[in-house]
Amino acid sequence: MARLTSPRWLAGVLLLLALTACGRTDAERETLARERETGYRGFLLPESLGPVDFTLTDQRGEVFTLRDRTAGRLTLLFFGYTHCPDICPVHLANLAAVLEDLPYQTARRIQVVFVTTDPERDDAARLLDWLGRIDRSFVGLTGTPEAIAAAQTALALPEAVRMPPVNPERPDDYAVGHASQVIAIDGDGRARAIYPSGTRQAAWLHDLPRLVSEFVDDDEPPPEAGSLP
Amino acid sequence: MQWWCAAQGIPWSWSWRAYPGVWLFIVLVTLIYLRGGRAREGEFSRQRLAFAAGILTLWAALDWPIGALGSGYLASVHMVQFVLIALVAPPLLLLGVPGPWFVRIADRRLLSAVLARLTHPLFALILFNVAVAVTHWPAVVDGLMASQLGSFAIDMAWLGSGILMWWPIVCPVPKRRFPYPLKIGYLLLNTVLNTAPYAFLTFGELPFYATYELAPRIGTISAQGDQRVAGLVMKLGSGVVFWTAIGILFYRWWRTEEAETTA
């Protein structure tokens, strides 16, 4: 009875509680391990991939050739779709939040490019509306299924897969399985790093300035302003 | 089968979901209370009313939709849960405890000794605020909210520490007097001690919790906006509860002094 109520026992409980608070999740430990190894919290590619290039249609209905329009900038390329209920809006919302916090000189050298994996529902108007509610500077691209599939293949990404609708009476209500990573492409069009779904704002805030500093040429002329009207 | 609300990472739906673990817990607590015997004449309906209010508050906080939203989607709703489970429900449940129960506790030496330690105001104050800090630590939230058992553990930590924190205010503390001025000071100290977590949540530039930062979004609120609302809910919600209690204690203290002066 004395043990249960002794001050030492109670102090031990409090200490245990406090120590619990110092722990990290597995994902945090892995992120920190990557940072110690490469200096980045994302996955730095051991060898760059590319140059990455393709031509699709942007949210204004104009032809958009990736290398021409993003030369001299760090491009964050993401394949997704606007009806995505989770990964896509979270990924893009986190990027938008971080870009707001970055210094202007860094943020203006970064371009987010969203390529739809659901061209049937995501036309230019839909992309303009949806991306405009997240960040007006984000570029949205659509095109033929073949052109989009080719772009994914060129980046060694699996092609998106249209799932059957949950309710057969609503054939337009379907999900699309797609690769969920953001690919960081340098100013010369070469893929340098990958950021999977679940990348946190703190990781973006840590890596983006480093990516710009290491992979975007300071001597390049200032990039043009964001693409949305 | 989802027994307890936990973060699942699936898009939110306003379709009702069953969480039978919550119902079992509520029924169990209610049965224990009802089996405990009746209160003295006159106190019966008031105490039953207090307990009913407490158990209904607990049920609302743990079950769909508040429990589901708070466990996996919105930090602000998670904070609403905290206020309800740790600050609102415990005093109501304690007010529902009939007087004879405390006599029975006093008759049991071991239980009385343990309770005397746990409900010592200093210990209860420290334990509650350590529990608040630990259960709001990002690694703990992100580590535990993903599992039903972990989410249950956080809810029980709030309920248990809340009961101990409120015990010196609402109930007789075994072997100890706790006069009104000290009770008021005790609650004032609580209003000050929860300023730190509130400040981190409200003024932090980045989202603290991966659980809510990476959750499927609901509406247009951003992760940072949701976190700021969470901080405000914590501060304002706890402020309303504590200051209401302080007001009641002041009133009772004044009434006691008046009665003594008149006598």
Radius of gyration of chain B: 19 Å
Q: How many strand elements of chain B?
A: 0
SSE succession of chain B: HHHHHHHHHHHHH
SSE string of chain A: HHEEEHEHHEHEHEEEEH
Measured by residues with Cβ under 8 Å of the partner chain's Cβ, the largest interface is: A-B, 29 and 34 residues
Distance, first to last CA of chain A: 75 Å
Structural class per helix/strand content of chain A?
alpha+beta
- Count of alpha/pi helices of chain B: 13
Description:
The complex is a heterodimer of chains A (229) and B (263). Chain A has 229 residues and is α+β, with helices and mostly antiparallel strands. Chain A has helices spanning 7-20, 26-38, 66-70, 87-101, 104-107, 124-132, 145-154, 201-215; strands spanning 43-49, 55-58, 63-65, 74-80, 110-116, 139-142, 161-162, 176-177, 182-185, 191-195. In chain A, the strands form two sheets. An eight-stranded mixed β-sheet of chain A has the order 1-10-9-4-5-6-2-3, with helices on both faces. A two-stranded antiparallel sheet of chain A has the order 7-8. The model of chain A is unreliable at 1-5 and 225-229 (pLDDT under 50). Chain B is mostly helical and 263 residues long. Chain B has one domain. In chain B, helix 3 (66-72) crosses helix 4 (75-95). Chain B is globular. Chain B starts with 19 loop residues before the first helix and ends with a helix. The mean pLDDT of chain B is 91. Classes of the chains: A alpha+beta (229), B mainly alpha (263). Chain A binds chain B through residues 1, 4-5, 10, 14, 17-18, 20-25, 27-28, 85-86, 89-90, 93-94, 97, 101, 133, 198, 200-202, 205, and chain B through 9-11, 109-110, 113-114, 116-117, 123, 126-127, 130-131, 133-134, 137, 139-140, 142-143, 205-207, 210, 213-217, 220, 222-224.
